[in-house]
Amino acid sequence: MRELNLSVPSIEEAKLILDEGSKLNPGPWREHSLYVGKAAELIAKEDKELDGNIALVLGMLHDIGRRYGVTSMRHSIDGYNFSMKKGYDLLARICISHSFPYKNIDAVFGKWDCSDEEYKFVKDYLDNIDLSAYDKLIQLCDALALPTGYCLIEKRILDVALRHGVNEYTIEKWKATFEIQKYFEERIGKSIYSVLPNVVENTFNF
Description:
Layout: H1 11-24, H2 29-45, H3 52-61, H4 74-85, H5 89-97, H6 116-127, H7 133-142, E1 145-146, E2 149-150, H8 153-164, H9 170-188, H10 199-204
Antiparallel strand pairs: 1-2
GO molecular function: hydrolase activity
InterPro entries: HD/PDEase_dom, HD_domain
Protein name: Phosphohydrolase
C-alpha cells in the first residue's frame, strides 16, 4: 500500500493557487472549494488526530484540476498531475480520492474523459491505497458543501445526481458517504452539522 506523505502547500500558497485556477477557469467550483476547505478545518479541529491547517488546504484544492477547463472526471487526474509536479503528494492523492468514498473507479458521477492509460492509472492507484482519515474527511466535506454554503448531505448528493446522472454504483456510494459521516461523528463525539454554520438556512433556503 502507498505510504501517506503529508506534503501540502501552505495556506497562503493554497489561496494563490486557487485564485490562479479560478481566473483560468471561472466558475462555482471556487466557492465550493472554499467551503469544503473550511468545513474540513472545522471538523479537523474537533478531531484529536487531524491537523486543521492541512485539512483546510486539502479541501481548498481538492478540485484544483478544474483550473484546466470544464471537464468531468478528468479534473481528478489533472489535479493529481498538477500537485505532483509541485511536490505535494498528499494533495495529489486527495485530488483523486475525493471522488471515491466507495472505492470503485466506475462509481463516479459524470464520465471518464481521459485516455485509457490515465483511466488505468487511476484504477491501479485506487486499488493500492487504503483511505486515510484525510481522504475520508475531504470526501465528507465535498458531500455537504454547495457553492453557497453548507447543507445536509442529502441535498448535496441529490444536487450532484440531478446534474450528472446516476449509475449502478450510486446507492453504494451514498451508503459509503453516510458511513463516513458516522465515522467522524464517532471520532469527534458530536454531529458534524453542529460545527458547521448556517446548515439549516442553506438546506432550506431560509
